[in-house]
Amino acid sequence: MALDGITLSSIIKELKDELLGSRIDKIYQPLKDEIIFSVRNGKLAKRVLLSANSNHPRIHFTEIQKENPITAPMFSMVLRKHIAGSRIVNIYQPDFERIAVIETEGLNELGDMSIKKLIIEIMGKHSNIMLVDENGKILDSIKRVSHDTSSVREVLPGKEYSFPPSQNKLNPLTTDETTFLSKMEEKTGSKTTNFIYQTYTGISPAAASEIAFRGGIDGSRHIEELSEEERKNVYKAFKLTFDDVKNGNYYPQIIYSPDKSKIIDFSVINMTQYSGYITKEFESVSQLLEDFYSEKDNAYHIAQKAHDMHRVVVSNIERCVKKKEIQLKTRNDTKDMDIWRLKGELITANIYAVEPETKVLRAINYYDESMPVIEIALDENLTPAENAQKYYNKYNKAKRTLAALEIQEKQNDEELLYLESVLSAIELCTEEADLKDIRDELIEQGFMKRKPQKGKTMRSKKSAPMHFVSSDGIDIYVGKSNTQNDELTLKFASSTNIWLHTKNTPGSHVIIDVNGLDNLPDNTLLEAANLAAYYSKAKTGTNVAVDYALKKNVKKPNGAKPGMVIYDHNYTVYITPDEEKAKAMELAK
Asked: What are phi and psi of 361, to 5 degrees?
């Protein structure tokens, strides 16, 4: 599912059709590796995303609104200085490489008209966005690459811009049959699919496999196994494919497995090799990429920003687990405490019958109805009274240890449950506001320290619970953090609302807003239970127990950690979480 040269060529066509002659209006850098700029052409307004994300690099139109940092990063400031207000005069893809060049024309510092180039290189972890002046000098880049990082190609302000090192591949748009068949002859020993994408630029393995399939060839067959006619058939398929590319005939689509359980690939050429699979077609490649990447990209950036919190929570969970193991060992060490007390009492009862320097006392256990004889080990250097006191001391020490242990176990179990609920909440985060809520909660609970704020601060957007609507039209709300769970349950919900939570498992609080209904439809209850199970640690389980009760029967004990409540007069429903049903109900985040 790589964004290859074919996909990029369709994006270039789409951008050229809409942007040529437009002026760049506003420029933002919402993330360290991402630029968004808006363009205007009369009343037409469009927004373009350029991402140098190492996992999901790309360029396309976007409609997603993203929160911008309080202080604009340096690269966005450079772009604003040099190309804000400039007119887009050309967009092209050099040699069918995974490189897009946007040429802009505008006034420089001296008031003279000059050309600047905004270049995005879509190269996996080496992806980058650069601004180059009319003399080919780099003004700045979103990722600076020094000699220490790469001895082959420095990307620094003032350096001459050069394209990435060539892999000696050919441009598929300019090849002919003679060249194609000649190169085939040179690559004997290679599989047909490998030959196609290793010889020509901008072709992914999936696209190469499709070309071979269109030529009636199994792409895994080696070149030397193909007859002359079969080789020509591969070229014909190759030519027809790139004739479509030259003519701008694209078919943006996402291909799903036959049961639609997972995405197989996306493409801008018709993937005939996936006959029988389910496809979702799009009017534009930008819509396809927005649909495909937005969730993945957001999840990646959220995971990056949540990394330190995740590490803190996991390390504290590990600490609690180790402490629990020690507590279990301590409990095991005190299991004989009642026997030690019994031995002390039996020694005391037989104190005058114990001979000096006796090592073992055989005494009748009067506390057992069958009155068995038990053997009690004695220290021959101690008096009988001292031996009895030794057993009493062991008993009393174990008794004190057990009393303290029960308190420690309760505290540790509560902390472990709380931390697991925080970990579950981190995995639910979809916005930076969600992360901030959890970070503030961890700071308040003493697990993290607050970082000093530099410069001016801006009030951040408040995270809101997830909002769903049942098939009966009833509102359902799901908390995304422990703090939010408390607000949802204890402040937002009325006493007659229905509260749901997975039984003995960390997860979100779920509220059904009955809004005066006398009878709650069974469908709504089951749908809310599905949400409670899906947004919990048991989301991959089966027959998950979900408790539900009237909100008035849910209480928060004094001193309890965020999200921790007790409840009674509850009922339980068992459900297997269904992601598709959960997502289908979502109204707004």
From this structure: -100, 125
Q: Provide the 8-state DSSP code for 191.
A: B
Residues ≥6 apart with Cβ < 8 Å to 158: 137, 138
Domain over 5-141 is classified CATH 2.30.310.10: yes
Phi and psi dihedrals of 560, rounded to 5?
Answer: -70, 150
Q: Using CA atoms, how far apart are residues 503 and 545, in angstroms rounded to an integer?
A: 5
| Percent of the chain's residues with pLDDT above 90 | 74
Residue type, 202: G
Q: pTM of the entire structure? A: 0.65
Q: At residue 375, what are phi and psi to the nearest 5 degrees?
A: -100, 135
- Close Cβ partners of 138 (under 8 Å, ≥ 6 residues apart): 130, 131, 132, 155, 156, 157, 158, 159, 160, 161
pLDDT at 373: 92
367 confidence band (pLDDT: 50, 70, 90): confident
- Phi and psi angles of residue 536, each rounded to the nearest 5 degrees, phi first: -145, 175
Domain ranges of the chain: 5-141, 177-301, 314-423, 466-588
Query: What's the burial of 417, exposed, middle or buried (CB within 10 Å: 0-12/13-18/19+)?
Result: middle
Q: How far apart are CA 287 and CA 441, in angstroms?
A: 37
Q: How are strands ordered across the β-sheet holding 571-575?
A: 571-575, 544-550, 498-502, 510-512, 475-478, 466-469, 586-588
Q: Where are the beta strands (DSSP E) in 356-503?
A: 360-364, 373-377, 466-469, 475-478, 498-502
Other CB atoms within 10 A of residue 62 CB = 20
Q: What DSSP element (H or E) covers 544?
A: strand 544-550
3-class SS string, 489-503: HHHHCCCCCEEEEEC
DSSP 289-315: HHHHHHHHHHHHHHHHHTHHHHHHHHH
The predicted-structure confidence for 419-433, as pLDDT tens digits, reads as follows 999 998 898 887 778
Q: Report pLDDT for 118.
A: 97
User: Closest by alpha carbon to 585, among 541, 534, 547?
Assistant: 534
